[in-house]
Amino acid sequence: MKNNRLYYLSALTIALILGILSRKINDIPLFFGDVLYAVLIYFGFRFLIMDSKKSTSLLLSLLFCFSIEILQLVQIDWLIAIRKTTLGYYILGEGFLWSDLLCYIMGTFMAFQIDKKLIKTQNLNTL
């Protein structure tokens, strides 16, 4: 079980680094970072709630990503101030885009498939 937790932490870290790099390198399309954001969130949920079903992490990840995207429609002063910080920008984003929702679906399902294929858990309720 500890090996799985280490795998999820490694996958989360790799997604985080690649996601930040995708925003720093101009030749990488912006949607790539949005896909990686969803991958990061999925593996974050797997790291935190490893004993739950993988499908639970999938649904929670989609719910989280969609909630963050919809929250971008809210324009409250204190929330705008948080979004102007580097960390706030990376976590909360800046503006609502329908295409981001599609990227989150792709990223979450991609992470779910990688998880299903590569991680063998001791728990029989993995799906």
Automatic annotation (TrEMBL):
Protein name: DUF2809 domain-containing protein
Protein origin, superkingdom: Bacteria
Keywords noted in UniProt: Membrane, Transmembrane, Transmembrane helix
Pfam families: DUF2809
Record-annotated membrane-spanning stretches: 7-25, 31-49, 58-81, 87-112
